[in-house]
Specification:
Strand content: 15-25%
Number of helices: 13
Helix content: 25-40%
Structural class: alpha/beta
Strand order of the largest sheet: 1-12-13-14-15-16-17-18
Number of strands: 19
Shape: globular
Largest sheet: 8 strands, mixed
C-alpha cells in the first residue's frame, strides 16, 4: 500500500493490508470465494423461512416511525452521539456536530436499472424522504452492492447537498462522479482523511464487491471508523466473522462509543457465513472492536435471506438476556455452592467451578468472600459494558427475593439450562413490572426504522 499526500495510513499486520491481483481485490487472510451460481440454485431449492406478513401485522411488529431530527440541533448532543436508523444499513449519526450518513438507500427497490428499476423491494418503507433530512456533512459507502450503493439516492443527495463530502472504497469514485458527486475521497484499507476536524478511516471487512456482469472484486469493500475530538463511531459494513481482524480494528482505532453492526441476512449459514455475520457473531464483533454500545442494522428492510424477518432482533434480545442471566447465575451459585449440597447438582457445580477458576486465574484468592465475588462480577458487568450497574443490582435483588420459589420448584436439582430458563422468565417478569428498560439500556440494542436514539457519553 502506497501512502498518498494528505492521507494518513495506519501500520497493521500485513495480512490485513489491501491486496489487489490482476485488478481484483481479495481478503488475504482467508481463501473463501463469493457465492457462485450453483450455490444460489441450491439455496433457492432449499426454500426460505422468511415469509413477510401482511401490512397490518408488519405495522404492529415492525413499525416505521416518522423521524424527528430535533436532537440533531440540541446542545445535549455535545455529551453523546445521536443515531437514527433509516432502514437496512443506512444510519444517520451525529459526531462533534457534523451529520453523517452510512450507505444511503432511499429507493423502494435495490437493484440494477434497465430503463426501470429491478431487484429487491422494501417490505418496510423509507421513514422519510431525502428532502426531509437535516443538513448532511458527509456520507460513507462500505461497498458497491445495490442494497448499499443506490444510484437514485446518491443523485438526490448530491443535488440537495452540493458540498457533501463522500468517502468511498477504492474503485468506486468513477461511479460517484457519474452521479454528479463533486467531493469524493477514495481510500484503501487503513487510510484516513480529515473532514471538519473529524477523521474518517477505511478498515477491512470480510466481504466482496460486484455490480455488473464482469466486475467481481474490482472495487474494494470495508467499514469506516469515524473519530471526532471526543466521540468515536464504527460502521462495519457487510462482513463475515474473523476475530483477529476485528480485534486489530479495536486495538488500532477503538474503543468506540457506538458501533453499527449488521445482524441480518445470515441464512442459510453454509451460503452466508463467510460474508454475513449472524447475531451471535455480531455480539462478538461488538466485543472485539471494544464498542461501548452497538446498534443492530442490516435487517427488517429487504428480504435478502432465509431467516424469519424478526429473527435477527429476537436473537439479539435473547443473547442479551443470556449474558445477563449468566452473570446472575454466577452470583447465585457462588453464594450457595458451599452451603447447599444437592445430589443432583453435579453439572451445575462443574459449570460453577469453571467460572470460579476464572476468578482464581485473576489472582483473587479469597474466592468465597462476598466482597471479592462482587468485585469480579462488577468487572464482568464492565466487560459487558452495560451503562448502569444499578440496573443489574435491582434485578439481582428481585431474583434473590424469588429464591424460595426456585427451591420450591426444585430447580436446583435440574440442569444448568433449566436454571437459565427460570432466570430468563424472572428477568422478563422484572421488565414487565419495572420501568427500567433492561435491553434498551444494554450494550447491544435494536430500534425501529426511523427511531432516534441518544447515546449518552460514559466518559
Amino acid at each position: 500500500m502506497t501512502d498518498q499526500p494528505g492521507i494518513d495510513s495506519i501500520v497493521v499486520d500485513k495480512k490485513f493490508h489491501t491486496l489487489c491481483e490482476s485488478n481484483r481485490y481479495r481478503c488475504n487472510w482467508t481463501d473463501f470465494s463469493k457465492p457462485g451460481v450453483s450455490g444460489v440454485v441450491k439455496w433457492l431449492c432449499e426454500g426460505s423461512r422468511a415469509t413477510i406478513p401482511k401490512q397490518e401485522e408488519l405495522d404492529h411488529a415492525l413499525p416505521v416511525i416518522n423521524p424527528s431530527f430535533d436532537k440533531y440541533v440540541s446542545e445535549e448532543t455535545t455529551h453523546g452521539i445521536c443515531v437514527t436508523w433509516l432502514g437496512h444499513a443506512c444510519v444517520l449519526v451525529q459526531i462533534d456536530g457534523i451529520n453523517i450518513l452510512t450507505d444511503p438507500v432511499f429507493s423502494s427497490k435495490c437493484g440494477p436499472r434497465f430503463g426501470f428499476q429491478v431487484g429487491h423491494t422494501r417490505y418496510r418503507e423509507v421513514p422519510c424522504s431525502i428532502g426531509k433530512l437535516p443538513h448532511i456533512d458527509a456520507v460513507v459507502i462500505s461497498h458497491n452492492h445495490y442494497d448499499h450503493l443506490d444510484y437514485n439516492s446518491v443523485c438526490q443527495l448530491a443535488e440537495r447537498f452540493p458540498d457533501l463530502k463522500w468517502f468511498v472504497p477504492m474503485g468506486v469514485k468513477a461511479f460517484m462522479e457519474s452521479c454528479q458527486c463533486k467531493n469524493v475521497e477514495e481510500c484503501e484499507w487503513w487510510q484516513g482523511r480529515l473532514h471538519k476536524n473529524v477523521k474518517f478511516t477505511f478498515v477491512p471487512a470480510q466481504h466482496w464487491s460486484k455490480r455488473g456482469l464482469m466486475d467481481d472484486n474490482m472495487s474494494l469493500w470495508g467499514g469506516w471508523c469515524i473519530k471526532g475530538s471526543q466521540r468515536n463511531f464504527y460502521f462495519s459494513g457487510d462482513t463475515g466473522y474473523y476475530g483477529e481482524l476485528f480485534k486489530e480494528i479495536g486495538d488500532k482505532l477503538g474503543p468506540f462509543d457506538l458501533a453499527a453492526i449488521p445482524i441480518g441476512a445470515y441464512c442459510p449459514r453454509w451460503f452466508m457465513c463467510h460474508h454475513h455475520i449472524d447475531p451471535e457473531e455480531a455480539l462478538k464483533v461488538h466485543e472485539d472492536v471494544k464498542a461501548t454500545r452497538s446498534i443492530g442494522i442490516h435487517w427488517g428492510t429487504f428480504n435478502l435471506s432465509s431467516e424469519p424477518y424478526l429473527e435477527p432482533r429476537d436473537k439479539v434480545k435473547e443473547l442479551q438476556i443470556k449474558k445477563i442471566a449468566e452473570i446472575l447465575l454466577i452470583k447465585v451459585i457462588t453464594e450457595n455452592l458451599q452451603t447447599e449440597k444437592c445430589e443432583g447438582r453435579e453439572k451445575i457445580q462443574e459449570w460453577a467451578r469453571k467460572k470460579i477458576k476464572e476468578l482464581q486465574n485473576e489472582k483473587k484468592e479469597d474466592l468465597q468472600t462476598e466482597e471479592k465475588t462482587k468485585e469480579w462480577l462488577h468487572k464482568k458487568v464492565g466487560e459487558l459494558q452495560i451503562e448502569k450497574i444499578e440496573k443489574l443490582q435491582k434485578i439481582e435483588g428481585f431474583l434473590r427475593a424469588n429464591i424460595q420459589e426456585l427451591k420450591r420448584e426444585k430447580i436446583e436439582q435440574l440442569q444448568n439450562e433449566k436454571i437459565d430458563e427460570w432466570l430468563k422468565r424472572k428477568i422478563e417478569e422484572f421488565q414487565k413490572t419495572n420501568t427500567i428498560e433492561l435491553l434498551d439500556g444494554g450494550n447491544f440494542f435494536t430500534i425501529n426504522i426511523g427511531e432516534t436514539k441518544f447515546i449518552k457519553s460514559l466518559q
